[in-house]
Each structure stands twice: as structure tokens, then as C-alpha cells.
Amino acid sequence: MTKCIFITGGVLSGIGKGLVTCSVGKMLQVRGFKVTAIKCDPYLNVDAGTMNPYIHGEVFVLDDGYEADMDLGAYERFLGVELSGLNNVTSGQLYQQVIRREREGGYLGRCVQIIPHITDEVKRRIRLVAEKSRADVVLVECGGTVGDIESLPFLEAFRQMRQEEKRGDTLLIHVTLVPVLDAVGEPKTKPTQHSVKELRAIGLQPDIIAARCEEGELPVSAKQKIALYCSVEERAVFTSVDVGTLYELPLVLEGQGMGDVVSEYLGLDKPKADWSHWKAMVARYKEPKDSVRIAMCGKYAELRDCYVSVNEALRHAAAASGCKINIEWIETEDFEKHPEEVKVLKDFDGVIVPGGFGKRGALGKIRTIEYCRVNDKPLLGICYGLQLSVVEISRDVIGLEDADSTECEPHTPNPVIDLLPEQRGVNEMGGTMRLGSHPVHVKPGTLAYSLYGSEMINERHRHRWEVNPEYWDRLEKAGIVFSAWSPDGRRKEMIEYPDNYFFLGTQFHPEFKSRPWAPSPPYYGLVKASYDKKRGLPKPEF
Ligand code: GLN
Description:
The chain is an alpha/beta fold. It folds into 2 domains: 3-281, Rossmann fold (3-Layer(aba) Sandwich), CATH 3.40.50; 288-534, 3-Layer(aba) Sandwich (Rossmann fold). The protein has 18 helices and 21 strands. The strands form 4 sheets. A 9-stranded mixed beta sheet has the order 11-10-12-13-21-20-19-16-17, with helices on both faces. Strands 5-2-6-1-7-8-9 form a 7-stranded parallel beta sheet, sandwiched between helices. The radius of gyration is 25 Å and the shape is globular. The model has no long low-confidence stretch (mean pLDDT 93). The site of glutamine has 11 residues, from α15 and β17. Glutamine is lined by residues 355-357, 383-384, 387, 407, 462-465.
């Protein structure tokens, strides 16, 4: 029988509810339990694919091609699990499904309502994941903050499940914020009390409170207050503190006894935890003294959340390369107005041009790539980064001055990046890109092969455009090596430029499969090469 932990948030959004969810999952894993996680998103979008990452944060692509909320990325990275679209339930999906069923006559004669039809659909999906995953414990996190109108159906479904499942088989963890006001220096528990009151008003009583406090672990007096007013045991009040590396949080919460309380409350036996691997991993993140400086050149440069997976993949790669990493954001639009500013890249050890869309900022990215190619600066181009590398080389090496991607210039005479026939005539925007995990053939003897060590790999995709087959020959003559392609031979998947110290582009997004203990090979390549070059070492052999 699968047990269920519901995670809700109070006071504010963005206080690390997702990380608490991941940490609890990890605590159960190190005790030998199989876990999976679901994110409930109250918005009406069917998935995150059509949302602007500038506002909403990264779109995280799963193996099955589902375009998910970025919390699913955190679950995959912490828990080492591969999730599917079933693990992200949005209000959009619930309404779409219920209304479709209504039109088919599935509810004939009845009035279709939020309760019970939408709430039943929430419960059905949670139970479906429990059944399919065969997990011992399913973590179910509800997005937003208690008190939001739109999350009510989800919380009502949680309430019903807590009634329907056996007592002790479900648990509710409420994540709140405890602010410390400068003037008094005292942690304020009132917002937590209020948000628990809000939860109770809809019939939910938390078992555990995880309070985020920037000032460190809560004093006993604050815990006692929360315990008393929120009706939880004092030993069930934990503090989620700021940590040096995210991967430390499970250890911090475990240190406060959370793992034992969670296991005990759920009636799970064999609760002996083995943290040895995780601790050794965290040490690799904290030990290095030396660091590399990587420029992340993109358009949404201001907002960290747009490229969470890219950032994490770089961090994983740094830990494996024995260095720390400083990632700095460079707005490529600046290089359009002031081309000479591209020289700021001189002070960086390596450059990454991540995925992106549209014409704005593209010229600046092309100038970034040109700078790296000409000045032998280690470069990794991801998706759009690969495509714009092809544009740059077509313009500056082959001499096709008007070469472009048809994404930027639909009528360019030299469409070196173009849509393949299957993408033409696609009108709907949601879920219609080339998405998800696809097999990729890697050519032996290339940089790509030395990084992956395998001729057949699987990586996740999210794009419409491709390197135009009509230009493959000319690009190869210009020095580009196509080191990977789709097994049907129709698509190029990786490029490299062997004259340079490190110049690699991937049509896929390897960051989605990077794990803190197993960095993504292209990211590892970039960081190791940047670090080696900084130390004056010869071109690395991977
Ligand atoms: N805009 C490009 C395409 O759709 C690249 C997409 C990306 O970088 N994810 O093909």
C-alpha cells in the first residue's frame, strides 16, 4: 500500500516548498523506501510549455516530452527518478478532462461540478501515480499558497484522501515562513499561525511544520509557540534554513530529526538511514577552493529561474571537475547595440549559450559565438546555441553573409537552420515542438564520443528548427564536425569545431538529465575544459 505525504505552503510563495519536498523524499530514500513525487499546479494552462520562462521560470522537459513545471526538475535531480507527465497535475488538465468527459456523455443526467468531479479527478490521478510507480511513498506538493482561491479544489481533494485512506497512511507537511524583523531580532510566528488557521478552515490539520527562517534554526521558544498554536508536536516543527548548496538541505533537516519523525508518523519500519553517499557528494560541492568563471549569454539573463537546469548542470560539472563555479549572466542584446562590448568575455574561463527563442538577442548570441571561436574560448551551445553557431560559421567561415535561421529571417536566401517538413503547417503552439527523449547516435573518435563513451545515447529535446541538410556538406568543409545525429540520419544532433580547445553544440538539452552525482557529459566537458585552460593545461582528453 502506497502512503502519501501532502505538502502545502503558507505565508509566501517561493520559500522553498519544492526543496522541502525533495528533502523529505531523500530522507525516505536513504531509509530504503521507493518514492515518487507529484506537483499540483493550480493554473489553467494544460502544461508549462506555453508559459513565458521570464515570468514563470524554466520549462522542464521530461522523457515523455511533457513540458513541466520546474519543480519536477528538482524532484528528478534530488531523487534520481524519471518522471512522466502524470507527475504534474494542472487545473487546466483537470478541467479539460472533465469537460471532455461531459461532452462525451460520461456524466449523463448529472450536474458536473468542482466537487465532486474535479476533486475526484485529482484523487484519481494521485492514486494512478501511486499504482503505476509502485512507490512506498508518493509526495504530493500543491503549488501556490494556502488561501489562494484556485488551489482550493486540490486541497479539498487532499482532505478527502486523508479521510479515505487508512489513518497513518497520509501526512501533511505545511511549509511556512518565519520572518525575523531587524528592529526586535525576534522570529515572528504569527504568519505561520495564521496560515495554519487558514488550512484548518478548509478541514486540513498539518502534522509537521517546516518553517523557513533566514536567520538559522528557530529557538525552542518559537518552536514551542508554533507547536502550541498550530497543534503539532514540538518535535515536529523544523527549520528550513539557507544552505550553501541546495543538496545540503536534506542533511540539515535530517539533523533536526525530521526523517525519524516522518517515518514514525507514517508507521514505516526499517528507518535506519544511510547518508554516506549523499554526504560524500555534498562534500564534493563544498571542498574546492579554486573556481572557474562561466558567462551565460542569453536573453532572459536577469531571471535565474529561467535556466535552473543549466545552472544546476554546471554546478554538477564543477563538483566533478574539482572546482567551484561562478556563473555570470550576460545580456546578449547589449552586444547588438555595442558590438565591442563582447570583449567582456575575455575575463571568463568559458561561455555557454543556452537555449532560446526568437530574433531578439540572436545577433548578440552570434557575436558571442564568433568571439569564442576566434579567441579560442571554451564554448558550449545548447539548442539555439548550436543553431546560432551554425549561422555564425556559415556567415564568417563559409562567407554566406545573409545566412540565418528562418526563425529569425523567414525569407533568408541561405536558410542554414530551417524547419523540417513535419514542423511546417503546425498551428497549435502547445506541445507541438520536437519534444522529449530521443535516441542519438554518436560518432566514435569525436569529442562527443569521448564525453559520452557510447555510440547510442538518449537525450531530451525541445525545438522546432534543425540544421538544414542542404548545407551539411559546406559546413563540414568549413571545419564543422557533425558528431551525432538521429538514428534515421535526418537530423544533426551535435556539432564540434576540433580546431578549438573546446567548441561543442548540442541540438538537445542535456541539462535535463544532469544529476548532482552524475553530471551531464557536455556540461562536464565545458567546465573541465574551462578549468584546464585556465590552468594552462593542454586540451583535455575525456
Ligand atoms: N528556437 C529554436 C527552435 O525552436 C531553439 C529552441 C531551444 O533552444 N530550445 O528550434
